[in-house]
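Before the break, one more example. Copy the sequence into your notebook; we will annotate it together after we see the structure.
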Amino acid sequence: MNHNIFLSFAFIVLAIALIGCSTPYQSSGIMGGYEQTRLGQNIFQVRFQGNGYSSHGRTSQFMLRRCAELTLEHGKQYFTLGISQQLSDIGSVHGNAFSFPSGQTTITLLDSLEDPRTNLDASIIITETNLIARGRLSSKASETLNAIRNQQAAQASSETPPVPESQYGYATFYTNSPSVKKKPITWIVNGKKIGVMNHHFPASQSPRHSDDPHVVSVELPIGIHRVQTETEGPWQIQTEIEVKPNEDKIYRLSKIGSTRVLHTHKTIRRKSNP
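Here is what the structure looks like once it is written out:
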């Protein structure tokens, strides 16, 4: 008797929990969800059933996401809808709004992009529906999606034109303080260590070029760069320098009163490339 009462109570609690909850993005279950049937080698019928609390726009986006996920699970990037879907104002997905009045559609998986006007990119659809689906994606689809994104990143990198030589400049650092012999200075630019200084120039001398063994020198793209030093001595600074086209600069680390400063000692202007 008590066992039956407990089961009845548990069923009531479950029913209350489900009331007011729309169908999430999931495989078909007690609250609805998606399912598919294979009709051919690359042809599938996809269905999504939402409950009474699921809006038409929400179920249409879930339908389209499942089509994209299914495409990725089979190692493809593109697919096409077998029957032209009715455009509506349910919201944008992949640049268009799609409606699935019957709760089902037929898709054909494609080996490559054949017609940009009708072919859909699964990777884009997954990105655009991630929020509403709470990022739910099968491991097979994730693997294909990551491979597509890596390929796109590599292609974008290879297509990036090289920066002309004039877009770089040398920044050279030195000091006249003999204390660096006992307490070397580590130079850090933009969070990256570029060298250690353990030699100095006498007060009356300075480096003439960036290859001097007593300096720390680095080639940087034009723009603003963060410079800092690390040392057990008093020569710790944090500042910024600006690199300009066709200019190399020599900076001296010195002391003004009790303050350590980095200032431009010399600017060397190079002839610009024709």
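The longest helix spans residues 139-159. The longest strand covers residues 259-269. Try to locate both features in your own notes.
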